[in-house]
Amino acid sequence: MRILAVLTVRNEAAFLLDWLAHHKAVGFTDFLVFSNDCQDGTDEMLDRLNDMGEIVHLRNDGPYDQRGIQFTALKKAEKLSIVQAADWILPLDVDEFVNIHVGDRTVPALLDALPEATAITLTWRLFGNAGQVAYQDTPVPRLFTRAAPVVMYWPWRSAMFKTLYRNDGTYKKVGVHRPRNADPDRVNAARWFDGEGRELDGQFRARRIFSNYGRSNYALVQLNHYPLGAMHSYVLKADRGRAVHSDDVLGMDYWVERNFNTAEDTSILGLTERAEPIRDTFASDPELATLHDEAVAWRQTRFEELMMQEPYRALFGRLMMTPPSTPLTLPQAQVLLRHATTARIS
């Protein structure tokens, strides 16, 4: 069985080897990675991994679709042999880590638990900054263990998902959050299940990109999402730009809607023992080791360069002054939802 992860990256070489080791450990067999106009050696690292047979790497250096880097890359993906040969496909970002809670905690174990699924929604669990200021060269899941509570009522983005889907022709195109271009003769027979193993209703077959919130969605599988990182890393992320909505500048709104540190979740660390030998194999390659060290140094140098520019210096100052976000209670969220509904009607 071929299980494919599709990844788009830009200036994220320092995180790449840890991410790849983790996802090999949880059972992904193939990796298609697009690099996008990189300055930190990400593309060179991916070239080396391609030469080693670990991934398939394609440069996606522009021009880009008006919807952004990720849409441009995924449009290219659909015709590639690695995509056409896959039995299951999951598009991911480098700040997303698949965290399976069933069986031996691999993707095949998840598929065994939901054998009738056409698609499985992996709902984000947002992991906050936890007061980390400086970037450290340590695997992200070890550094950030504070997360949003299991049950969230707001923002709705806390319930967004990525979709692991069967590549059987029901959907013909890879999408950022869900597969696209459904076959009208097959889609009504598609069966979607959530991370709790509940079968989802028909609207998920065509348009939904977020789970039903106000309840747990994580019993079988969750997608650990580390969108913020250390404050230094967030400043670099603002400099890099967004992968989906390229014209949207990252600011404090993005930070506040994701910086939840209410609960501790260390469940993913149970996979460390399996991932570490894979990561050690990567480190034993002199070229990969050098490229990783250079990427770490690049991040530190780039942060110092950005601190010479007032917009980034101001952003860093605001990050330092802003406390962790407080999850809304159900009554508070209901007020927002009522106003949102009124606004849509008017």
Please characterize this protein's 3D structure:
This protein is of the alpha/beta class and 346 residues long. It has one domain (94-345). The protein is built from twelve helices and 13 strands. The chain has helices spanning 13-25, 42-51, 69-77, 81-84, 107-113, 140-143, 231-240, 252-256, 272-283, 286-306, 310-321, 330-345, and strands at 3-9, 30-35, 56-59, 88-92, 96-100, 119-126, 146-147, 161-166, 171-173, 180-182, 192-193, 221-225, 263-264. The strands form three sheets. Strands 1, 2, 3, 4, 5, 6, 8, 11 and 12 form a nine-stranded mixed β-sheet that branches. The chain has a two-stranded antiparallel ribbon with strand order 7-13. The relative contact order is 0.17.
Average pLDDT, to the nearest integer? 94
What is the terminal-to-terminal distance? 50 Å
Query: Could you tell me the radius of gyration in angstroms?
Result: 20 Å
Strand element count: 13
Give me the strand/helix succession.
EHEHEHHEEHEHEEEEEEHHEHHHH
* Unreliable segments of 5+ consecutive residues: none
Q: In this structure, how is the largest beta sheet organized?
A: 9 strands, mixed
Fraction in beta strands: 15-25%
Structural class: alpha/beta
Number of domains: 1
State the shape.
globular
* Helix residue percentage: 25-40%
Helices, by number, come to: 12
